[in-house]
Amino acid sequence: KYSATRFGNVLGSAGSVIPLFKKQIASGGPITITDKRIIRYFMTIPEASQLVLQSGAMAKNGELFVLDMGEPVKILDLAENMIKLSGVDGIEIVETGLRPGEKLYEELLMDSADLRKTSNEKIFIEQDEAFSFDEISDKLKQLREACDISDETVRQALHQVVSTYKTPDEVNKKVLPSHTGEAPYGY
């Protein structure tokens, strides 16, 4: 019996931006963000733990559970609010540029028509057709062979094997130009 649970960032966990921003503010700044348009979903550690445990209890065989993360947060707004709340003046916010493979926003599949409701309004199951062992073996073989050719071949193979896969460039193209101050999909 196995399943997977997909969700966004967990506040206060290892690698979370909040401890980093606190440290940067305490040292007088600047706060570093990769791009002013970056948007992320957040939940607390207790929230994430509860939802993962509940998903596990619902698991039958191979489901992908998708958690409703609520509204996304602009990282720039988070940084500005943390500066205001700290009471420290003169903290700059500096853009460092997107890292290779980084996406401007996360896609959590919440808009997918392929989601089935569960007894918990925050937990959905992606309805994907199950693959046989032979189909999975074939897909893994295809991916392994692509690894020996080129990065572009790997990307093409991923598109064929994982129908929802999008490269960071594909995701980032959907984001409006930064001078508009707007985010994708009306967020």
TrEMBL record:
Residues 1-126 form the Polysaccharide biosynthesis protein CapD-like domain. Gene3D superfamilies: NAD(P)-binding Rossmann-like Domain (3.40.50.720). InterPro entries: NAD(P)-bd_dom_sf, Polysac_CapD-like, Polysaccharide_Synthase-Rel. Coiled coil: none annotated. SUPFAM superfamilies: NAD(P)-binding Rossmann-fold domains (SSF51735). Belongs to the polysaccharide synthase family. This is Nucleoside-diphosphate sugar epimerase. It comes from Anaerovibrio lipolyticus.
